Amino acid sequence: MTDLKSAAIAVRENAHAPYSNFQVGAALRTASGAIFAGCNVENVAYPQGTCAEAGAIAAMVAAGEREIAEVYVVAGSPMPVTPCGGCRQKLAEFGGGDVPVTMATVAGVEQRTTLGELLPGAFSQAFLETDT
Prior knowledge:
This protein is an alpha+beta fold. It is built from four helices and five strands, in the order αββαβαββα. It has helices at 2-12, 52-62, 85-94, 115-118; strands spanning 24-30, 35-39, 68-75, 100-105, 110-114. It has a five-stranded mixed β-sheet with strand order 2-1-3-4-5. Helix 3 (85-94) links the parallel strand 3 and strand 4 (100-105). The N and C termini lie far apart (46 Å).
């Protein structure tokens, strides 16, 4: 977890958040043990920015990985920040309901949960199967 935490804290410093001043860092550990990190990137044309979790997922996929084993998200907030709804669905695309998610503040407050607890009833490929 320490490497994952360190990666999320470090990448948060690279966030481009000139409008909200709300920097977020996320790091994912894959089933192979590789770590991928992402930070939020705002754009003056809201909502064209990118969340930290989405950036980490994009880096993971670009490297050829497809399975999330653990997630760590950190923000400069008074309490741990959960991934937004869209990012919860993005995380669920590559991780099962039992994947641990740690949400943290830069002050060190942590809250642990799972993808399944963050997004019960996640939309999945099973819904796309048709009865013939």
